[in-house]
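Summary for the funding panel

The consortium committed to producing paired sequence-structure records for every protein in the target list. Below we show the first two records in order, beginning with the earlier of the two.
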Amino acid sequence: MKILESKYLGLRLKNPIIVGSCGLTNSVESIKKLAENGAAAVVVKSVFEEEIIQEHQDVLKNKLGDQDNNLEFLDYFDYQIKSDVLKKTAALIQDAKKEVDIPIIGSINCASSGEWVSYAKILADAGADALELNLFKLPSDVNQKADEQEQFYQSIVSAVKSHVSIPVSVKIAPYSSNLAASIKKMDDIGVDGITMFNRFYNVDFDIYTDEVIAGSPYSTNEEYYNALRWISIMSGKVNTDLSASTGVHNAETAIKMLMAGATTVQIVSKIYMDGPEVISSILEGIKEWMEKRGYVSIDEFRGSVHHDPDQNSERFERVQFMRYFGEHMIS
């Protein structure tokens, strides 16, 4: 029998497959189906502060009538909308934990610094087994110093960890003035896990209508390379757990991430495309590969091909093409 058990954020998981935060984890019925198909944990759909703000603005615009100048009422209304959204997510966590025997991880994404702690406490009190802070703000301010944003992230993590007793992980972007140092600082302040990497809403253009439109929301299997590189580089250099995200569509990619040193992998897009059954398919693929290689447990090969400064640093750190295009000739 192959042992797929893994540990992540101090939680014992039956295998390394986590369903990442998305619409698929926004109902108890959906979470049950994911668990039945082998998911070892789920990250519930993020509470987005911006969505709460937008709902507030929409209602202010369309439904308040003669209360639109009542400042006391508006303050109450703002609080009520926020409270309702958070109560809904808290109820989802509570109900899901009654129906499935896998860890339920809460997720929050705030736009303002003051809300991270309050949101985190509500989800922790609801019974979440851990929290994932969805940390990223596009660094588009040309006047902002390079380290200001990363210091802001670190302050958020420290504040949340000081107010909740459950494990706290962060989902980060690959955009940083010094990604390795940024990850190490997160590790130094005690973050329990880091997910690499966040997948973002992509901007595209319609060349016939001149409109700004959304790019594809789904990842492809070819998008895993960046996470593979960075998990390989940071594995062994930090104590925190590393989780791979973006581009994990099959057993082969999941195995590569584990070989790089990932504790777990997060899957979303492939489940949207092929249904929750893809989870059991990936798990079977991992077992078959382990059988061929003679492995009994995942721990036997986890981190087996990570970055080693004394042996293979150039393989991981070279970023310019040489072999593929250096001598290519056009006939």
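The next record, for a separate protein in the list, is shown here:
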Amino acid sequence: MRLLLIEDDDRIAGPLTEGLGRYGFTVDRVRTGAAGLADDGSADLVLLDLGLPDMDGLDVCRALRARSPVPIIMITARGEEADRVAGLELGADDYLAKPFGVRELVARIRAVTRRTGALPAVPQAPGTGAPVAAAAPQRLGSLEVDRRTRQVWVAGRETALTPREFDLLAHLAQDPGAVHSRQQIMDAVWDPNFFGPTKTLDAHVASLRRKLGDPGWITTARGVGFRLTVPGESPPGAAG
């Protein structure tokens, strides 16, 4: 699904683009309202900041809605009721005030697309016009991770994981053997605005180790974080 992000602040746009990419979205980002209006119109949904450097986001919303039914979610620091009402009356489909977590935004995107009946574009292979094949399941020793179906198998037997456990495993499996810091994991699997106890990560790691059947799948880099390894092939110095 292609998203058009109209946001001038790099501190917001960078993490947002990265976070949405982890959920399978393709994000094209522009910095001004004019650039957003000059887009080719192929986006499945628009994420629109109101505080743009060249024009008011409300005017961008009005212009987009005049020419297209594309779903629009406003993302802005303006949290006043008058701004929310104005945006919705101009045709925005939802309104999300900063700060917010990526998970909340993803939930809003999914809700809006369900409500509007928007259909995501078929991903195209760069420069070919051909559909991109679905990613094959990842295999690490006896472990198999299918991100498309969110299923996991160990030694050929399917292992039931909670959504958070799957996200944790998939994150570690992106770069097996590499140490992922606790903060990196919390930002990626929870989100940068999560303020709960960090012990929740330890609890999920412990549960995941049990379900995978061998604590050696996830080893601890003391004082740093965790890594995913094939049992028996743990890097020297790793402690489980």
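Regarding this second record: The first strand starts at residue 2 and ends at 6. The first helix runs from residue 10 to 22.
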